[in-house]
Amino acid sequence: MITPGSTIGILGGGQLGRMLILAGRSLGYRFHVFEPSGPCAAGMVADLEVNATYEDEAALKQFAEGVDIITLEFENIPSAVIDRLSAIKPVMPGSRALHICQHRQREKDFLKESALPCVPFEYADSAASLKTAVEAIGFPCVIKTAAFGYDGKGQIKLNAPEEAADCDYLWNFLDNPPRVVVEKWIHHIGEFSVICARKADGTKSTFPMAENIHVHHILHASIVPARVTETTQAAGAELACRIADLLDVVGLIAVELFLEEDGRLIINEMAPRPHNSGHYTMDGCVTSQFEQHIRAVTDLPFGSTELHQPTVMINLLGDIWNDGEPDWAGLLSDPRVKLHLYDKGEARPGRKMGHFTVLGDAIDATLEAAEMHFKKL
Q1: Distance between CA atoms of 67 and 346, rounded to whole angstroms?
Q2: Which of 17, 111, 134, 320 registers the highest number of CB atoms within 10 A of its CB?
Q3: Residue where one domain finishes, among candidates 184, 217, 235
Q4: Residue 107, domain member (yes or no)
Q5: Is the Cβ–Cβ distance between 294 and 21 less than 8 Å?
Q6: In a domain, 309, yes or no
Q7: Contact between 353 and 347 (Cβ < 8 Å)
């Protein structure tokens, strides 16, 4: 057990790191943050912020030697960096989970080899092979860069053959990636996610399934409880737990899911860290995803994930600052609303600046209230 009073290192300094630190503070832990891009949201609440590149081996070594364990809020970290740090201190969720989840080809191969439900896919490493892959999958389909894609970045949806006529253009549009994954477009009736926490001894705990609404490929709202059957919710939790075991995760893993019309769940993506769709847990559950992650990596007993009452989380993107500071007083005039701002500085379109949650007695009425508040900002 890593006892309270110990120091936890976090790779990445965004809002997820910030919320990990705020949750871990209540348990008595200290935090150091390593963030290459400069002063960051997590650094503002950390005991120490290190700003250096991942190529700076001396800075990485000094960072690792100053903490007791290392975790992360962002999985797209070079594997060589994880290897160097792991030689000094334990890095969680573990190298296998990171290696697989940070690359879509490895992720798809893992799902297929593990006989887990996933969308049909093909690979391409050139404009010529892209044409072959698209023809094999058919239309509609989605082209995704194999690495460094999130919030819809590095993706193109093709609806008809004529849109794939110029694969050289498509390849250039994606910035000539080393490899892409071509996926069949799934005609789903909803998007969902389940977050599973797992400790080194295999003990697991899952949070209630979230029903997710995306706008322009970015999460807009999470609705909990998800408006699906208990059987579907249990199936989602079972998939998340199975993946956590297969990847030997220590910490959290979020599993994004499509629900088909026949009731079958299909795995879309995985993220071995706290997840945007789990922000509802900060106000909606007895224990938040962030506190549960800290409990997992330090080997403390898990907290309850029981849902207090129906909860809706709404993301706040930089777009709503276009006409000046939003009307926070108006939002908070509803006593059921909890507001979380990330102190990220410049509000840019598409940039996640915060979120709010609304708690209520009935999920449909709570969602209606949340959307009403959002439109008034």
Answers
A1: 31
A2: 17
A3: 184
A4: no
A5: no
A6: yes
A7: yes
Q: What is the DSSP letter of 103?
A: B
CB 294 within 8 A of CB 20: yes
pLDDT tens by residue, 262-288: 999 999 999 999 999 999 999 999 999
- Domain with residue 167: its CATH number is 3.30.1490.20
Q: How far is CA 202 from the centre of its chain?
A: 21
253: nearest Cα among 199, 183, 186: 199
Closest by CA position to 285, among listed 261, 249, 309, 252: 309
Mind listing the pLDDT tens digit for each residue in 242-262? Answer: 999 999 999 999 999 999 999
Does residue 109 lie in a domain region?
no
Q: How many residues does the chain have?
A: 377
pTM over 0.85: yes
> How many structural domains does the chain have?
3
In the block, tokens 């573990």 appear at 94
Residue 148 carries which side chain, given as an amino acid letter? F
Burial class (CB in 10 A: 0-12, 13-18, 19+), 72: buried
Buried/exposed code over 193-224 (b: 16+ C-beta within 10 A; e: otherwise):
bbbbbbbeeeebbbbbbbbbbeeeebbebbbb
Could you list the residue range(s) of the whole structural domain that residue 28 is in? 7-91
Q: Kindly report, residue by residue over 320-349, the tens digit of the pLDDT.
A: 999 899 999 999 999 999 999 999 989 999
Q: Residue 43 carries which DSSP code? A: G
